[in-house]
Structures are given as C-alpha cells and as structure tokens.
Design goal:
The complex is a heterodimer of chains A (98) and B (191).
Chain A lengths: L2 E4 L3 E4 L4 E5 L13 H9 L7 E7 L7 E7 L5 E6 L15
Antiparallel strand pairs in A: 1-2, 3-4, 4-5, 5-6
Chain B lengths: L14 H4 L9 E3 L3 E8 L1 H11 L10 E4 L2 E7 L2 E7 L3 H12 L4 E5 L4 E7 L3 H6 L16 E6 L2 E9 L2 E7 L3 H12 L5
Antiparallel strand pairs in B: 1-7, 2-5, 2-6, 3-4, 4-5, 7-10, 8-9, 9-10
Helix pairs in contact in B: 2-3
The chains are: A mainly beta (98), B alpha+beta (191).
C-alpha cells in the first residue's frame, strides 16, 4: 500500500487521504474585477504536469488537515510534503526525481 | 398511535437504551458509557481548556494524556477528544465554558455519538490489522498513541492504552459492523 507522509501525523496509508487538486492557486482578491476569461482560468484551468506536481492533499480520515505535496506524476513518488502556507520546497534534482 | 410530537431528545434516553449490545469475549469488551467532548480551538486556547479540564492536552501529535478519570486525545493540531466520567458531563461542560469565556472555540458534547470498545490480548494488534493497514508495532504505534483512522469502512479512534490493549471509539451505528468484522477476523486466532 502507498504510504503518504502527513506533515502532522507521519506516514499513513493512502486510504486515509483525499486528493485536493493543484496547490498554490490564489483566489483573486477582487473577483469582481476579473473578466470572464480570467475568472474561467482561475476556476478551471489547471496544469497537467508530467513530472513533479505541487498538489493539495487532505488527511481526511486522520487529522483532517490539508497540506501540500510534491509528487512525481510519472512514478507516483511523493518527493516532499509541507504545510499549507509554506513555500514550495526546492528539490535536490541530483537525486534524479525530476 | 404513539405521540409523534413527543420525540424524545437524547437527554431523555438512557444510555442503556441506545447503546448497541456488544458480546463480551476474551479479546473484546464493551467499555462503560462516559462523557465525551469534541474540543476545537487554537493551541493556546487548548492549553487554557486543559487547565480547567484537569488534563494538559498533548502538544505532540497523536498522543493521549490521562489524568485520573479523564483523558485528552490529540486528534488534530486544533482538535482534542476529551473523555471523562459519565456523571461529570455537565460539570465538565460548565467548567470549560467558564474557563474559555470569549475565546474562539467549539465544544460539542458527543457522549452519545460514540461507543467505546476494548480489544486486548496477545493477538489484539493482529486482529485490528485484519481491517487496518496501520503499522501497529510498538516502535511505530507506542503505548499512549492515539489517532483517528479507518477500520475497513468505519471511522474509528484507535488508542493504545497498554502494550496489548487498544481502546477504540466507534460511532454508535457502526458498532455492530465493527464488532462483527473483528469477530470474523478473530476466529483466525482461536485455538
């Protein structure tokens, strides 16, 4: 079973987690100022990365917290997890992960 | 016809009437009803609540703290499950509301939401592992550790109170399902 590292609880089985979509999408401060195309881009347009993807996860059946993770979409390896609000960590690319 | 308007509230039901019947066996025991509170607040408010409750909540993740008849279980950085004697329900609630005053918090009486079971014996961890992929070795899940997790399809709170004793909190309507499932698994370990 895939183990996912929760930044609060440690390694837990994948079953306890829920995927939360792409990370680091900031809601516009004044949505009313956006035109339809910009609003649609905020709502719907997501990257479709092959490789390292920053995404949100929630430890839904554990501590119930959202957190962010860097995952390689080709191998399903979790490369890093970090708490919501923290900056995306730099990866050591020499490790061959990205 | 029964009086349909006179729907009894929880306060009018005795715990005995709503508690699922659990058959005691050498590895499974139903635990006595107790008062339970879900407390959610920022860490500094949790500490304040701990002083009023008589148990300082754990700052370390996934740890339970026991003090006398009361316990505080870490469920999340901002969430603790408080356990106490059933008779203390009203006083715990009053004490906490008085101590927390205008701080931002949520205190919910969930005494009747859950039932408590005790899984014990040399095969306790094996029986639980029949329906849970958690690593229950003593190194990964030491005595005093607690967590919310999944037992097959049911949300439970799992708490290792002794080396080979686990306390689980199960939502009341899932109790039959959980005990039935564990009983099937436990047959594997009958001699």
């Amino acid at each position: 079973m895939l183990l996912i590292q929760c930044p609060y609880c440690g390694p837990r089985p994948e079953l306890e987690f829920a995927y939360g979509g792409q990370a680091h999408i900031a809601r516009p401060l004044k949505p009313a100022d956006l035109n339809d195309d910009e609003w649609a881009a905020f709502l719907y347009m997501r990257v479709n990365t092959k490789g390292v993807h920053a995404e949100r996860w929630r430890h839904a059946r554990g501590c119930n917290r959202f957190f962010n993770a860097l995952r390689d979409t080709t191998t399903d390896h979790f490369l890093a997890v970090y708490k919501t609000g923290e900056a995306r960590p730099a990866l050591n690319t020499a490790g061959g992960h990205s | 016809m029964a009086d349909l308007t006179g729907i009894p509230t929880m306060n009018h039901l005795t715990t005995a009437r709503i508690a699922p019947q659990v058959t005691r066996s050498h590895w499974l025991a139903p635990l006595a009803p107790r008062s339970r509170f879900s407390l959610r607040a920022a860490p500094q408010v949790l500490a304040l609540a701990g002083a009023a409750f008589g148990v300082a909540p754990s700052e370390q993740a996934c740890r339970a703290v026991v003090q006398g008849t009361r316990a505080a279980l870490w469920l999340s950085p901002d969430e603790q499950l408080l356990l106490g004697l059933e008779a203390d329900t009203a006083s715990i609630q009053a004490d906490l509301h008085a101590a927390l005053g205008k701080a931002a918090y949520s205190l919910v009486d969930v005494s009747h939401r859950q039932t408590a079971l005790e899984i014990s014996g040399p095969n306790a961890a094996d029986i639980l592992n029949g329906a849970s992929p958690l690593d229950l070795s003593l190194a990964a899940f030491p005595v005093g550790m607690c967590t919310r997790t999944l037992l097959d399809k049911a949300d439970i709170i799992l708490w290792r109170t002794q080396h080979d004793v686990f306390h689980i909190e199960v939502w009341r309507s899932f109790t039959d399902y959980v005990t039935g499932l564990l009983s099937v698994i436990a047959r594997e370990y009958e001699s």
